[in-house]
Amino acid sequence: MTLETEIRTALGSLTPSHLDVINESALHQGHAGDDGSGESHWRVVIKAPQLDDLSRIARHRAVHDALGKDIIGRIHALAIDIQ
Fold first, then answer.
1. Helical H segments across 1-83, by residue range
2. Any idea what the CATH number is for the domain that residue 33 is in?
3. Cα 81 versus chain centre, distance
4. What's the domain range around 49?
């Protein structure tokens, strides 16, 4: 299973009405944090009704919690866009 699939599956617990999982690793080749796996830098664009009433920090924490320590531990950089 690819990391993208794992991210999508994990974020499914937030029942998003919109979810984009974008691998931006190629944009960071040779930079700090590039481990050569091609799966080090990610962008998540998500809209989930259960995030609507949360503060910005609480929204990001909810995304991190949904992903879990295992997935977060394998990502060098994660950009989160909550719509």
1. 3-11, 56-73
2. 3.30.300.90
3. 9
4. 3-82
Give me the number of domains the chain comprises: 1
- All residues at 6 or more sequence positions from 29 whose CB lies less than 8 Å from its CB, including other chains: none
Q: 32-56 burial by CB neighbour count: b if 16+ within 10 A, else e? A: eebeeeebbbbebebebeebeeeee
With 90 as the cut, is the pLDDT of residue 19 above it?
Answer: yes
Instruction: Give the separation between CA 1 and CA 18, rounded to whole angstroms.
Output: 22
Residue 30 pLDDT exceeds 80: no
Q: What is the pLDDT at residue 33?
A: 63
Q: pTM of the prediction?
A: 0.87
The Cα 66–Cα 75 span in angstroms is 14
> To 5 degrees, how large is the angle CA 14–CA 10–CA 27?
110
Once rounded to an integer, what is the mean pLDDT over residues 6-33? 88
